[in-house]
């Protein structure tokens, strides 16, 4: 009830008045020329409830109004032929107050939805549209559900388009219903477009993929290879590869002839979850069905073996690839460079670069970037600089510059980091948050707090918004320099911008503030973090002392 009524935001609830003690059949005096009771009272059975309902809403007594409306709708027999009938009579009697109409509309939608009166919800929506009104955002989901249940699929799509255009942000349940409506109408292209949008904005792409697949099969909509690969990819990305195989098997039974793209999706899915036996088995199944695996399938296997530091197995699969007449691609060589780089086998990295060029493939920015990244991690500054300056006339991209800038600040070459950032700008590459984070960290290590603030200001001027990682760096950096009051300023800005620091930083900051005597600030951190669900916050010993100190201060006053 509380959640439902929270959507009715027009007036706050007030204390019960004498009106609530009156029987609802009693007429409340109210002047209104549009609805008049006859002398013999023959219309009172309709007019009286309308007057009473309007007075309850005008007084802001929404909960009482809700219960009253519910009794009017669900009573048997009812004085009103339908919820829309009640709304139309109320609208006629309250033409001057649009907010009351909207409040009652929302109440009726909620009551009908709760009572599974889907046809009535659809009728209410239709009446509201005729009146030129749209439902509140909070009621879109229930209307969509009812329209689907009522098989008014065109209306579902119209409502969705209109509400999204007004700023409504659908959740995965709304997306699921709208996708279902598109499938019911046979518009699989629209359904897939909505599915892709939902995947970008939702964490339940797999569930939606299964729903879409089941409904398409039930509806008899033919799924082609492209559509199937999207569905399977949604499942594989969430690690549900065996479920993806089940779906594929079912689609084959319904006439689908899987192509390379579908098998590549399954191979990559098994590689992602580390099941190399099944990944290899899928490649063998491809070949047994007359399909020739391409670079994409082999690269997935080679990449996973490199990630697992099984470099010999990776090389073995490169040889298999060549043996089957498939030339390694630039991506294949890049995977090997990164794999050997992680093992700090840089001589082999340079050999792979030479092999690459010898086989007619030109190294790209990623080739050099992977090598530079690995050299930086192994703190080989001269070699990294050499590769950066010898990139075969290729311009470094943002990733390469960021790796080098971060590396320079890590080894204390902050001036080189800033010089490289300027080179980056001169090359027309816009620094991002990662660039600034490295520079900020460099200044903090040097104790340059004023310059650090200037960097953050410059960030904002350039249109970059500091995020949680930036604020965590700032707070931790100030704490390391024992500037706890300065850290607290960044902490407050972080909270105001909707970010939360991590627990360790909160503990360090609150402890430092307490030791400096800033008990109120320390206690506020403790209270705010607990309120935000940080159960791991260290509230014993140091923070308990904060609370105790605050209590003692209060006693002293």
UniProtKB/TrEMBL annotation:
Highest rank taxon of the organism: Eukaryota
Gene3D superfamilies linked to this entry: Tetratricopeptide repeat domain
Pfam families, alphabetized: PPR (PF01535), PPR_1 (PF12854), PPR_2 (PF13041), PPR_3 (PF13812)
Protein's recorded name: ATPASE EXPRESSION PROTEIN 3
PPR repeat segments: 224-258, 259-293, 294-328, 329-363, 364-394, 397-431, 432-466, 467-501
Organism whose genome encodes this protein: Salix koriyanagi
Keywords noted in UniProt: Repeat
PANTHER family according to UniProt: MITOCHONDRIAL GROUP I INTRON SPLICING FACTOR CCM1, PENTACOTRIPEPTIDE-REPEAT REGION OF PRORP DOMAIN-CONTAINING PROTEIN
Record family assignment: Belongs to the PPR family. P subfamily.
InterPro entries per record: PPR_P_subfamily, PPR_rpt, TPR-like_helical_dom_sf
Keyword Repeat: yes
PROSITE patterns, per database record: PPR (PS51375)
């Amino acid at each position: 009830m509380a959640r439902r009524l929270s959507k009715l935001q027009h007036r706050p609830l007030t204390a019960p008045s004498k009106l609530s003690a009156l029987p609802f059949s009693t007429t409340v005096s109210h002047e209104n020329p549009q609805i008049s009771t006859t002398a013999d009272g023959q219309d009172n059975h309709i007019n009286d409830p309308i007057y009473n309902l309007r007075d309850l809403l005008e007084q802001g007594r929404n909960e009482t109004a809700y219960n009253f409306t519910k009794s009017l709708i669900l009573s048997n027999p009812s004085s009103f032929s339908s919820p829309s009938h009640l709304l139309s009579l109320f609208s006629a009697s309250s033409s001057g107050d649009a907010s009351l109409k909207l409040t009652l509309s929302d109440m009726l939608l909620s009551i009908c939805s709760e009572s599974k009166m889907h046809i009535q919800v659809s009728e209410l929506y239709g009446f509201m549209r005729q009146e030129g009104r749209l439902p509140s955002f909070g009621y879109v989901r229930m209307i969509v559900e009812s329209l689907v249940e009522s098989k008014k699929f065109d209306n579902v799509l119209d409502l969705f388009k209109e509400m999204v255009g007004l700023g409504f942000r659908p959740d995965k349940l709304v997306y699921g219903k709208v996708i279902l409506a598109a499938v019911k109408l046979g518009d699989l292209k629209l359904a897939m477009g909505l599915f892709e949008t939902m995947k970008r904005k939702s964490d339940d792409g797999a569930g939606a993929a299964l729903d879409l697949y089941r409904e398409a099969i039930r509806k008899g909509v033919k799924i082609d290879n492209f559509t199937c690969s999207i569905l399977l990819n949604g499942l594989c990305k969430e690690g549900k590869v065996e479920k993806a195989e089940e779906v594929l098997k079912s689609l084959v039974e319904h006439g689908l002839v899987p192509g390379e793209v579908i098998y590549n999706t399954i191979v990559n899915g098994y590689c992602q979850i580390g099941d190399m036996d099944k990944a290899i088995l899928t490649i063998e199944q491809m070949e047994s069905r007359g399909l020739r695996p391409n670079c994409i399938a082999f690269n997935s296997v080679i990449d996973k073996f490199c990630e697992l530091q099984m470099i010999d197995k990776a090389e073995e699969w490169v040889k298999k690839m060549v043996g089957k007449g498939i030339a390694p691609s630039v991506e294949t060589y890049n995977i090997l460079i990164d794999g050997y780089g992680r093992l700090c086998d840089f001589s082999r990295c340079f050999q792979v670069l030479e092999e690459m060029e010898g086989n007619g493939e030109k190294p790209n920015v990623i080739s050099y970037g992977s090598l530079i990244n690995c050299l930086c991690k192994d703190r080989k500054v001269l070699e990294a600089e050499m590769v950066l300056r010898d990139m075969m006339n290729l311009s470094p991209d943002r990733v390469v510059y960021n790796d080098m800038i971060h590396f320079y600040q890590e080894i204390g070459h902050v001036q080189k980091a800033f010089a490289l950032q300027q080179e980056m700008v001169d090359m027309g590459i816009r620094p991002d948050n990662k660039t600034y984070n490295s520079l900020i960290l460099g200044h903090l290590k040097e104790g340059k707090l004023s310059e650090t603030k200037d960097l953050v200001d410059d960030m904002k001027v350039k249109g970059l918004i500091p995020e949680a990682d930036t604020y965590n760096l700032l707070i931790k950096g100030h704490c390391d320099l024992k500037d706890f009051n300065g850290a607290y300023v960044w902490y407050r800005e972080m909270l105001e911008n909707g970010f939360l620091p991590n627990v360790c930083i909160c503990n360090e900051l609150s402890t430092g503030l307490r030791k400096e005597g800033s008990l109120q600030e320390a206690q506020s951190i403790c209270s705010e973090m607990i309120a935000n669900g940080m159960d791991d916050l260290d509230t014993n010993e140091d923070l308990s002392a904060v609370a105790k100190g605050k209590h003692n201060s209060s006693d002293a006053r």
